[in-house]
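Hi Y.,

Following your request, here is the sequence exactly as I used it, all 352 residues.
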Amino acid sequence: MPTKKNNKTPEQFLELVYVAELFHLEPNDLQILNLNYTNFDSKRKLLVLKNEIEISLPLLLSRYPGNLEINTVKEGRKSTSPLLNAPTNSDAWLIPGLSTTFDSRPVNSLRVIIEKLFSPEGCPWDQEQTPQSLIPFLLEETYELIDAIEGGNCNEQIEELGDLLAHIFMQTSLSQLAGKFSLEDVVEYVSRKFIRRHPHVFGDIKEKSPEEIEEQWQNIKTAERNEKNINGIISAIDSIPKSAPALSRAQQLLSRTKKTGLTQSITSHKQQISLIEKHFNDEKYTQTIELLLWTAILLADEKNLNAELILRANSNKYVKQFKKLESKAQSENKKISELSQLEHQKIWDNLI
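Below is the corresponding structure, written out as tokens. Let me know if you'd prefer a different format.
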């Protein structure tokens, strides 16, 4: 992958020409590390000039094995050294391109393999893929991993976790090729997020109870949503994925809106769920729910209806009604729990 221009000084260009001639590099071979654009191709030779050697070492060690033999040059003398121990006062480093035949155990090995698949010399099928075209396969691998975890088979878990990890590398490789973001961007973001959300572990906050930690977590997530908010309207349910399975999404919507103070009314559904109410505190409660869910699916199938799409549509109606309620509460400078029960009931009436 060619690097972007980094406006080198005339002295740096002379240094570049000198090093290129010393290593007998052809222009097509030349890939120069630019710390302003770190999406380099680890399968090609990488030239690191002296001003960027020391500062780039953490990045290089995240992309290459520490024992990888590299070429170094100092005052016209060439030598080789493992990357981890290479002299940082060198005039330049030349790092060889990685192949797929080296130790496959380090995580970075998988990255090299996936990047090779998407490269011009890689797999024709992979080269045709887009982030969107890989979504069905990503979902399939996720479900297979869940099956493996629930089955308790370690070998199957290793296989399915590997498949899922490969998909993460596929998505970041495609984004990197498009110049959007890299794996390092993803790792940096999630690392900072987990540190930020656990001040009781990484900060100076005193020990908290599980309940206090849950409240703190929710407060931090709310603050994060506020920072991301552009339009000035923040909904408690915006972070629930629209593409989640319909049953899971519906339950998340109900759980999240309940925390806002919304009354979970079932007055309008008394007749349909009388069986549930009868066994509410009964050991048969779970079986009753199972029976009702299964019966609903059977009824949908009998009429050639898609139960997933029906529930998804109803969830979308619920989102629309809840956001209306949120807007009303915001306009009156109230919490949802402070609105009248009549206002709460409108949500459920509109779902029937």
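The beta strands are 46-49, 69-74, 77-82, 92-95.

Thanks again,
Q.
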